[in-house]
Specification:
GO terms for molecular function: N-acetyl-gamma-glutamyl-phosphate reductase activity; NAD binding; NADP+ binding. This is N-acetyl-gamma-glutamyl-phosphate reductase. A 7-stranded mixed β-sheet has the order 8-9-7-10-13-12-11. Helix 1 (12-21) crosses helix 13 and helix 8 packs parallel to helix 10 (212-224). It is of the alpha/beta class. It is 32% helix and 21% strand. It contains 13 helices and 13 strands. The chain has helices at 12-21, 42-45, 62-66, 80-89, 106-113, 120-125, 131-139, 149-163, 195-198, 212-224, 256-260, 263-270, 320-334, and strands at 2-7, 27-33, 70-73, 93-96, 127-128, 143-145, 169-180, 203-204, 234-239, 246-254, 277-279, 297-302, 309-316. The structure holds NADPH dihydro-nicotinamide-adenine-dinucleotide phosphate (NDP) and N-acetyl-L-glutamyl 5-phosphate (X2W).
Amino acid sequence: MISVGIVGGTGYTGVELVRILLRHPNVQIKALTSRTEAGMRVDAMFPSLRGLTDLEFSNVDQDVLNQCDVVFFATPHGVAMKQARDLVDAGVKVIDLAADFRLKNTTEFEKWYGMPHACPDLLEESVYGLPEINREAIKTARIIGNPGCYPTTVQLGLLPLLKAQEQLVQFDTLIVDAKSGVSGAGRKAETSLLFSESSDNFKAYGVKGHRHHPEIVQGLDAISQQKGWFDQMIFVPHLVPMIRGMFTTMYLKLTEQGKQADLQALFESAYATESFVDVMPAGSLPETRSVRGANQLRIALYRPNNGDTLVILVVQDNLVKGASGQAVQNMNLMFGLAETTGLEVVPLLP
Ligand SMILES: NC(=O)C1=CN([C@@H]2O[C@H](COP(=O)(O)OP(=O)(O)OC[C@H]3O[C@@H](n4cnc5c(N)ncnc54)[C@H](OP(=O)(O)O)[C@@H]3O)[C@@H](O)[C@H]2O)C=CC1
Ligand SMILES: CC(=O)N[C@@H](CCC(=O)OP(=O)(O)O)C(=O)O
């Protein structure tokens, strides 16, 4: 059995980890922390878990965490990097759902997260936890920076084009128009997240600059091994009045080769062996509810009016493939388990 610690058990990604891991055949949750609710039964806060567990929240206890095989940090940015050194020295693997181990450049990290990095050496050895791209490195990693939710949709939506032999699109024309459900902002009390502020409304945010922008560019640069293609990328996130779900629409100009190519076949073959990426049949319209609660990302391609623009539609559940499901996918790889273990959940529709 893999002994698991979860730091940040009262938040949305924390409880999503609990939901998934309670059904995982190879896992035992040893610690589930909360600074505010230590002593409370987890099913008293989350009645969805009644009858499934007797777990209680506990204070963060380094000795207990040091005895785990792996610790997930479902905490705000800046928490994991302060505890990672002790854990790694004790032989514990670390999976951070926040951004402490995503941006490799510490100056960029400080610029976007407003704090110096606490352990640049561990940052250097950490692996960006996007299995469809970094599977082999994840298997032997000690520390995983689990991707941000928007960056997962963009990188997986573009991967087949970036890996193609020919240049099928003009990457410097990329526009990313993305929408997230409100749970993407976490469970914290904030005025903009009140029902009366976020329901029956639809708005853009972070248009001047969002911290996922550098993460997306870093990822795309790494896959393409071409610096500069994405320097002019436009990324506009929006808040949608739904609880879960993320819908990312990308627009790119096709090259002459791209106009001749069978892009549907390219995407289908690129993802033929991936369990968690579904290339939908031509003409499909992905919907967020088709992935709700599941570790799935669905993609559809369009070339409107047979013109020179490629439109890529991507949906995922921000809390599952966008966060906790992906983190468990990474854990499975790190412990030599089948990647799908504990993750074969059917999406909830309607
Ligand atoms: N929500 C989403 O869709 C996604 C979130 N993420 C990232 O995952 C992380 C968690 O997100 P989410 O679950 O939404 O956040 P929440 O705000 O819902 O939960 C945060 C959790 O962290 C705990 N916490 C807060 N501060 C500290 C601290 N200093 N030390 C220890 N624990 C602390 C809180 O518990 P308590 O106060 O009880 O201690 C709470 O359980 C964030 O970094 C987020 O950016 C990534 C991808 C998607
Ligand atoms: C709707 C909403 O507010 N979403 C969050 C993104 C959540 C996430 O995945 O991002 P991090 O892990 O990088 O914080 C945001 O835009 O800040």
